[in-house]
Amino acid sequence: MHQADVQHYLPELLALQGSHGRLIAAAGMRPASEGPLFLERYLDEPLESAVSRVTGASPDRNCMVEVGNLASLSAGSARIMIIAVTWLLAMRGLEWVAFTGAATLFNSFQRLGLVPTVLASADPARLQGQVDQWGTYYDQRPQVFAGNIGFGFDALKQAGMFERLGFPMLTLETGHAA
Fold first, then answer.
1. Could you tell me which of 60, 88, 67, 71 has the C-alpha nearest to residue 162?
2. At what angle do helices 149-158 and 75-91 cross, to 10 degrees?
3. What whole-number distance in Å separates Cα of residue 61 and Cα of residue 51?
4. pLDDT tens, residue by residue, 32-62
């Protein structure tokens, strides 16, 4: 994708298979509690400070996660992956997700009724000599986004997305503030 030769992968990978076992989407995750996040290269401050500045919330870094390395065969499979990742992160008790994406990914969130907050532009100049491995990705002008997992979970649950896809629904205290 994007003629990229990516050398950086997040440590935990979630794969999504279609009904015949074919891989249709994948995404990586890294808890912010494990150290610096890849997307923090684009920020002038730690992720929790950027989220606080933009949203007014006071997030705990231990409850934040970066999602990245998203690849999908279609926009539809990307949306299913967004639903699956939201469910998984909520079940793990995480509160904030951050990711880097372009307009096509943002559109997938909007089609699901989710509106992540823009934190910053993903400026390739901040990658210090690693731009070439990303191919044409930066031609799309990606941005760094953040979203409250509890809000996203509630919106997807109210829209019937989890039930429609057969996700088990456990009692979940999302604990988010308005």
1. 88
2. 120
3. 10
4. 999 999 999 999 999 999 999 999 999 999 9
Residue 70 near residue 84 (C-beta atoms within 8 A): no
Cα gap 153→176, rounded to integer Å: 11
Q: Are 12 and 91 in contact (CB under 8 A)?
A: no
Query: How far apart are alpha carbons 152 and 30 in whole angstroms?
Result: 19
> Using alpha carbons only, what angle is made at residue 104 by residues 99 and 106, rounded to the nearest 5 degrees?
45
The domains located in the chain, with CATH, are: 12-165 (3.40.630.30)
Tokens standing for 114? Answer: 């989710």
As averages over each run of 10 residues, the pLDDT of the chain (178 residues) reads 56 90 95 96 97 96 95 94 98 97 94 97 80 64 97 97 90 51
Q: Let me know the angle formed at the C-alpha of 8 by 68 and 129, rounded to the nearest 5 degrees.
A: 115
Report the alpha-carbon distance of residue 82 to residue 25 in Å, rounded. Answer: 10
Three-class secondary structure of residue 109 per DSSP? helix
